[in-house]
Amino acid sequence: MAIIDQAPDAPDAATLERIEHRWLDAPGIPGFFTTVDHKRIGVRYIYTSFVFFFLAGLAALVMRDQLASSNNNVLAPETYNALFTLHGTTMIFLFNTPVLAGFGNYLVPLQIGSRDMAFPRLNAFSYWVFLFAGLLLYSSVVVGHPPDGGWFAYVPLTDKAYSPAINIDFWGLAIIFVGISTTAGAINFIVTIFKMRAPGMTFNRMPVFVWSMLVFSFMVIFAVPAVTIAAALLEFDRLFGTAFYTPGAGGSALLYQHLFWFWGHPEVYILFVPATGMVSMMVAVFSRRVLAGYVWIVTSLVSVGFISFGVWVHHMFATGLPALALAFFAGVSLLITIPSGVQFFAWIATMWKGTVELTVPMLFTVGFLLIFLLGGITGVMVSILPFDWAVTDSYFVVAHLHYVLNGAVVFPIFGALYYWLPKMTGRMLSERLGKVSFWVMFVGFNLTFFPMHILGIIGMPRRVWTYSNGLGWDTLNLIVSLGSVLFGLGTGITLLNWAISLRRGRPAPANPWDADSLEWAVASPPPEYNFAQIPVVSSRHPLWDDDGAPAAVPVLADAAEGRDPSVRSLALEGAADKTTTITSGRDTRPFEVLEIPEQTVVPFVLALGLAAFFAGLLIEATVVGVLGVAIAVAALLRWVWRTDMDRA
Amino acid sequence: MNILHAHGSEAERLAGIWWLMFGLGAGVYAIVAGFIVWAIVRNRTAASDGPSDNTWIVWGGVVVPVVILGVLAVVTVQATSELRRPEANALHVEVVGKRWWWAVSYPGTGFVTANEVHLPAGRPVEIGLDSDNVIHSFWVPELAGKLDLIPGQHNVLRFTPRKPGRYIGECAEFCGLEHARMGFEVIVENATDFDRWLARKRNPPSAPESESALEGETVFQRQSCAGCHTVRGTAAQGTVGPDLTDIGERSTIGARTVANTPANLEAWISDAQYFKPGALMPPIELSNRDLRNLAAYLETLK
């Protein structure tokens, strides 16, 4: 097979219309419930998780109102406890994880040159499960029984004996439920990244964001089962009277903590890794040069994936475990600093040898660097075992965790909004509003979270609904509360910017940032089929030539004449048949043809059935639960059966 | 409650580690943030100037961190191996975490109190930590780091208080509704004062003398009080609420919720929920006279 690379001739309008007709979703409501388009699903993930982000942010602002002064009575303790439980649970499970999955969903197929994910229906299913799990959790608020055991839900506090009402069950079941979504999504990413890369997109040419989603996905697969088990055993104890966590009956309260944190610490990196993947993309583009230390960075991401599974006990330093075991986990916690340091200096080197352009995405990236630097330093401090005894469960840790989870994950996500939303919506966001938003957020962030370090040092414990006066905490708490209002305002400005851009934003060109990765090779927003002709990749920077100047991305000229159907699927015919190319995992030779499934309501019904099953467990209504299982089984049968039909 | 105002052996050590890390951390932050800003603002004169990509990564990302982390690892191992070690001649105190207060006892003396821990200065102490309900965490910032109270597990916190004084402690693990109002006090005295105090506490409080207090004692035994509270030497042997044997000498009520004054005591008895919503102490309906006498009785318990 002769590979002749050349820029694609623009297909004629009639052909494109024929292709588009083949891919277009049914309009209106039916299309909404049946789409399997990774871009629609990705955008949906992003919108849904931002709704949860603002709900959780609102919860935080109400909490800060209560804590603005000592002996305040704006909130009752049970309300405060419910708010901080919802805040943490929502931010981790319903914002951070799914928003990154959303960006991944949207971007990974585009960045690797595929027309969709490997399992488009599974992709739709993941989204619906995420949505229903979120609704399940928030229905607790509607019925007035929000979970109030903390986002970590430690036993025995969350056992039936101390939390007899239904509140905790909303939490436990929603956690098990949403885990299905995350896991299915991760499997989809792994197969997509392994098998759907365009010819020439070998592993060492994959964009760092794709690498980060690959690491994210493997971590999810190994970590999420632990939290699912933690929550499932909790629910067994609560619903069926088992005693996994009941010390008096042979259970163990610490078993829960081990299970929870075996997921919980990798989870921090599950969030952080894709955020750094985004940073690597943006740093290079806005330094106008190739990323320094690509191999270093990828190695760092992969090693973080492994090492992060060996640090979970640092959340349990004060539980009285043997000192030798604790010292081991302290050592590994120090070790995990190294890959982060490597990435950090690779970014500095990139900027150093580049010409930095302070666009809004780059501002958020620089803000991330300055915040994450401090979060990393305090992270080293809390991994020093004896020092952790002093600050764990104090506001020092609240400060540290927000510097890493808010500063080092949310700031890149906001940068990514400014960077990639134009691709998704076809509209640019306002740079001016974006700059205002960044500065308000940056100042608000530091006003909110920096003083918390000091509050922790002067003895303020976490998760207190109020505090006495005369302890020297009043002024700092007031500053924190004012800062949180500012931070909330800053995020609101971006929301406004986003909304305005949808109506009045300047139309986005295909590549507004002169970036180098494949998603910028297609129009903004991309056509349903992504690539009429699948590109052939010959460098890490398909849209740049050797000097970094914009270059057109080549395609295989004679693909349409190829004898192998998988080669032909690269060409326009492949798009016209609604297929995409499966390539061999390592050297990306066209290997097989993937038929993109038609629109289907089956994933929605399956998710609905599972939701009914969990709702049945929740309200202890056997009929509802059994009905849910029946619906789910029927949907699964239909799913499998259709696949055989398609092949026939 | 500043962890850096260290008056215990462990807190002293931790404060030392803090200042070492603070120095290193501030230096690292200043230098690296300087690099970031410099990299952004500098005019790139030639592609080859300054360190190469690999130089940045190897020195900044590997070599320097390994050196700093190596130092901190040594500090960690040393401090871990030296802190919380069993010592001869240590004083034993038992603390049990309740919802939401602390039961404190001195083994071998029969003396039980609540929310106040008396310790001798200069002598190693061993504080046994248990819970018969949810998880709590024992934290006196100026004396030592935290250690959890976990049902089904006996933890021991070991340190030496250095300087006489009153130190505030609090619960540091979220334990439900009134986690915020679960404070206590550690009173460190010099060894002779402590021994004298403990010797005195071996005996139950003397019977009340004033008429009001005597009537108050009757109220105490007649009403529901005795069902939940113990007063050593009387028929009251309840174990749900705090032991009140020396309530007259404690500085606060409700686990550092309010100051222990007769007026507060009366208000607390009639409606503890006002001060500490969710506390397990129910409102008690008493006539003003009974209430006053009851408070007078409790004030005599020393």
What is the element string of chain A, with H for helices and E for strands? EHHHHHHHHHHHHHHHHEHHEEHH
Number of strands of chain A: 4
What structural category characterises the helix and strand content of chain B?
A: alpha+beta
What pair of chains forms the biggest interface? Answer: A-B, 78 and 83 residues
| Cα-based radius of gyration of chain A, to the nearest Å | 25 Å
Tell the overall outline of chain A. globular
CATH architecture of the largest domain in chain B: Sandwich
Major sheet of chain A: order of its strands? 1-2
Taking the sheet with the most strands of chain B, its summary is: 5 strands, mixed
Please identify which CATH superfamily of the largest domain in chain B we are dealing with.
Answer: Cupredoxins -  blue copper proteins
Strand content of chain B: 15-25%
Number of strands of chain B: 12
Broad structural category of chain A = mainly alpha
Widest sheet: strand ordering of chain B? 3-2-1-5-8
Give an overview in words.
The complex is a heterodimer of chains A (648) and B (302). Chain A is mainly α. Chain A contains 20 helices and four strands. Chain A has helices at 13-23, 28-34, 38-67, 77-112, 120-142, 167-195, 208-240, 253-287, 294-307, 323-335, 337-352, 360-383, 385-391, 395-425, 431-457, 474-504, 565-568, 572-576, 602-618, 622-647; strands spanning 5-6, 555-556, 579-583, 590-595. In chain A, the strands form two sheets. Chain A has a two-stranded antiparallel ribbon. Chain A has a two-stranded antiparallel sheet with strand order 3-4. In chain A, a hairpin with a 6-residue loop joins strand 3 and strand 4 (590-595). In chain A, helix 3 (38-67) packs parallel to helix 5, helix 4 (77-112) packs parallel to helix 6 (167-195) and helix 8 crosses helix 14 (395-425). Chain A is globular and about 80 Å long. Chain B is of the alpha+beta class and 302 residues long. Chain B has two domains: 1-42 and 84-203, Immunoglobulin-like; 211-299, Sandwich (Immunoglobulin-like), CATH 2.60.40.420. In chain B, 38% of the residues lie in helices and 19% in strands. Chain B is built from eight helices and twelve strands. In chain B, the strands form three sheets. A five-stranded mixed sheet of chain B has the order 3-2-1-5-8, with no helix packed on it. In chain B, strand 6 (136-139) and strand 7 (147-149) form a beta hairpin. In chain B, helix 4 crosses helix 8. Classes of the chains: A mainly alpha (648), B alpha+beta (302). Chains A and B meet through helix 4, helix 10, helix 11, helix 12 and helix 13 of A and helix 1, helix 2 and strand 9 of B.
